[in-house]
Amino acid sequence: KTGNLVGIRVVQGSDELIIISSSGQIIRMPVTQIRTTTTRSAQGVRAIRMKENEKIVDFTRYVGEEA
User: Fold this and answer.
1) Number of structural domains in the chain
2) For residues 41 and 44, what is the distance between their CA atoms, to the nearest angstrom?
3) What pLDDT is stored for residue 48 in this prediction?
4) For residue 30, which of 56, 5, 54, 12 has the smallest C-alpha distance?
5) Would you call 34 exposed, middle or buried from its count of C-beta atoms within 10 A (0-12, 13-18, 19+)?
6) Residue 39 within a domain
């Protein structure tokens, strides 16, 4: 719910994100699957749900190869 900002990236609709958690989980997902989250006190996006003590340690934008 609250925490530090890991980073910001500018992405295109065709890009993917690679997200690495403190538990070693690596997730690769299209940016189109990230949904906007709005609550009374905050607004933003949620890429994945984290366990209680888990954190995002890094992420990067992945631009796929052109066919």
Assistant:
1) 1
2) 11
3) 76
4) 12
5) middle
6) yes
pLDDT tens across 6-65, in order?
Answer: 888 888 989 999 999 999 999 999 988 877 666 776 666 667 778 888 888 999 999 877
Residue 10 lies in a domain: no
Q: Which two tokens stand for residue 45?
A: 């996006």
Run of H or E residues at 38: strand 35-38
62 close to 22: Cβ distance less than 8 angstroms:
no
Instruction: Characterize the bridge pairing of strands 56-62 and 43-46.
Output: unpaired
Domain that holds residue 52: 16-62
**Is residue 25 in some structural domain?**
yes
